[in-house]
Amino acid sequence: RMLRACQLEVQGEAPPERAHHAGAMVEKDLLVIHGGENDDVAMSDTWAGKISEEAVSWTRIAKSRELHARQGHVAAAHEGKCFIFGGVDMMKTFDELHVLDLRSSEEWMTPRTSGRRPTARGNHGLAVREDMLYVYGGFDGIQHLNDMYMLDLRSMTWQLLLPHAADRQPYPLSQHVLLPWDDKLISFGGMSSANHESDAPVSAIDFFSCSDHTWDPAAQQVGSEYRRSTPAACVFAGKSPSILVVGGWTADHPHPEIASEAFWYSLEDKSLTSSTWSKGTDKEVFSRVGMSLNSFGRGREDECFMFGGWDGFFNRYNDLYRVNRE
């Protein structure tokens, strides 16, 4: 599978450089990003990027009711709305849900919910499937987590999905990705201290059934060359549906490295293959952590958009790339 990445020209003002922000495609040509960090200073601004064939026009929105600055939170879109949950700054970890509906307002709202909502956390997984929003894992400031919460977006009721007596629970982890596919959620990568003396990137792919709320009895173990923490990933749902995984840490201290290769995970035969690159594509743009990789899906199944990130040294970015599968 070949990748082609094209940097979009910026029309007007661009958002400041950042990493570890939240991003979501709320329409097929509209990307929303919020917060993140630059030089470990958390950010609170929100930007909407209107995407055309070769350019993006950014507008800063939600200026009158900015949320608390944060990083390590996650966003997901549903019916034209952008939802975010959690995140951290230097002193606090958050447990709030916020929603931005650009069809009626350009301000963040904190909807009233009922039920048992997730505890405060950052670097968790978040995904929407049909009318349900899921929050999985993360780090609460003390420990990695492996709990799964579900929010019914019709009734706005939270529920902690308790494991069945015989259900296998994945290791507690954070810095992973959670993606919806068919009637499942797929968790990939992350950071965990399970089976290690200290935190280290993990190499398991786990499947959660949204119909009966159970984890697959056995995680799929992958080779060490595919280990990632803080990667970016999205589903390409066209012909030969697959997950694209880019960037992320391949090792932790004392010798951290950022992945320089992208790879595909086939949702048909569950195989892993390294990506090739079309002529003119600089694969080094994917050697980052903390970037967002978002796809809209319907009508645009073979493309996604990558924004921002950190090269692991001194540089954060504010560039936007259209990424196509050829």
Helix content bin: under 10%
Low-confidence stretches: none
Question: What is the residue-mean pLDDT, rounded to a whole number?
Answer: 91
- Helix run count: 0
Which structural category do the helix and sheet elements fall into? mainly beta
If you compute it from the alpha carbons, what radius of gyration comes out, rounded to the nearest whole angstrom?
18 Å
Q: What portion of the residues fall into strands of 2 or more residues?
A: over 45%
Shape annotation: globular
Main β-sheet description: 5 strands, mixed
Instruction: Give a count of the beta strands, DSSP E runs of length 2 or more.
Output: 32
Quaternary organisation of the protein chains:
single chain
Strand arrangement across the biggest beta sheet: 29-1-32-31-30
N-end to C-end Cα span? 7 Å
Describe this structure in words.
The chain has 326 residues and is mainly β. The protein is built from no helices and 32 strands. Helices cover 0% and strands 48% of the residues.
Write the layout of secondary structure elements.
Elements: E1 2-7, E2 9-11, E3 22-27, E4 30-38, E5 41-51, E6 55-61, E7 74-78, E8 81-85, E9 97-101, E10 108-109, E11 114-115, E12 125-129, E13 132-139, E14 144-152, E15 157-160, E16 177-181, E17 184-188, E18 191-192, E19 200-201, E20 204-209, E21 214-215, E22 220-221, E23 232-236, E24 242-246, E25 249-251, E26 257-258, E27 263-266, E28 272-274, E29 276-277, E30 292-294, E31 303-310, E32 316-325
